[in-house]
Write the structure tokens for this entry.
Amino acid sequence: MVPLDSASAQLARVEAEIERCRRCPRLVAWREKVGQDRRRSFQDETYWARPVPGFGDPKARLVVVGLAPAAHGGNRTGRMFTGDRSGDWLYGALHRAGYANQPTSTGRADGLVLAGAFVTAAVRCAPPDNKPTTDERDACLEYLAAELELLREARVYVALGQFALHSLATAFGLRPRPRFGHMAETTLADGRVVISSYHPSQRNTFTGMLTAEMFDAVFARARAITGERPTTT
């Protein structure tokens, strides 16, 4: 039995609270509309169409923060970065770095396990055009802050994109905000490190703004900072 005060139990309570959230009317309307007007290739699936909680190892030393669930990715599957091309890039890189037991993620029951890593996002509902507002980001901030506080063994935070970096900076109370740039690093007062990365969006990967080698370098750097050896196979 999991102790009631364990990080796992506390994260589960945060996840349940996230899944019930209806704070942002625009996002609630959009996520539910997408769940009804399903993409043709997913017509036979039941969409999650709710806020998407974080996912991974409660003892993670690496925390990855993205932008928001994709309309037909996480909003469909109910797990962050699952069921879309960005997720293929992220979990492929985490697998190569030894943080994930498999390189792909198609659904909540696909057997994916993260060891030493936790994946979350600045905003928990799929936004229209993948563009949440700053007010929507701020409305979600307490959920990110709660996860960060419970992930007590984390030493490295990877921000996928400037929006995610600004959310992390706000959660950590960093002033001024860190400079965004691929592989740019900010060291917190206690020695923890924030690494910026280009987001693995199709816009960035199709244009070569982000290559597999560049993305792998981010997680190799995370490994170097934590000093851990890969634990997945």
